[in-house]
Design goal:
Number of strands: 8
Strand order of the largest sheet: 3-4-8-5-6-7
Helix content: 25-40%
Oligomer: single chain
Structural class: alpha/beta
């Protein structure tokens, strides 16, 4: 890392995975260094922060006991979907990629789905709770409007992981509340 205050050589990479995380880490370092007179941090503290950063639901990858990779991401707009698509391309699956998708009705559903269409082999629509939520059937209709030609199955985060064959990656995205519930269920099932 290099800025007007000097150079930090051989910093560890950020713990957060994904194509934008190096830039995000550089932005955080710039802020920390700009505040260094009021908030001094040692190099060890900076290294610890880079290595310990954790943001649930942002290209969070987990492999369950059955060997199924789960990718949790709260991409909820076209720009975030583009980053997710780039991350999926950078870390390709050895088999199919299933997307369990739940979205709020006031989001750009068609644009998000169209952005990810090339990276997903099968879509599973999941109902999102709340007044802004979109039910699974309405989401499936909007996915069809976005040009998804393969079947969009209504219902499903939890059952998707139970019946998947080997070499499958399951991508779960928006919204954060649903992503958190799914993560907790997967963790509870592992014991």
């Amino acid at each position: 890392y290099r800025d007007a205050r000097g150079v930090l050589v051989a910093l560890p990479p950020p713990a957060l995975e994904g194509v934008v995380q190096l830039g995000n880490a550089a932005t955080a370092l710039a802020a920390v260094r700009e505040l260094s007179t009021r908030l001094p941090l040692s190099r060890a503290a900076i290294e610890q922060g880079l290595g310990a950063a954790h943001l649930p639901g942002r290209f969070q990858r987990r492999v369950d006991a059955a060997g199924v990779e789960w990718v949790f991401d709260v991409a909820h707009n076209p720009a975030a979907a583009a980053v997710l698509a780039a991350n999926l391309a950078r870390y390709p699956a050895s088999g199919r990629t299933l997307a369990v998708c739940g979205m709020l009705g006031d989001k750009e559903v068609e644009a998000v789905i169209a952005t990810l269409a090339e990276r997903v082999d099968q879509w599973i629509a999941a109902t999102t709770d709340g007044p802004r939520g979109l039910d699974d059937r309405a989401l499936a209709e909007r996915a069809a409007a976005a040009g998804i030609s393969h079947p969009v199955k209504p219902n499903a985060c939890w059952p998707a992981g139970r019946s998947t064959p080997d070499s499958v990656r399951i991508r779960r995205f928006p919204p954060t509340r649903a992503c958190g519930r799914c993560c907790r269920r997967r963790a509870a099932a592992r014991g």
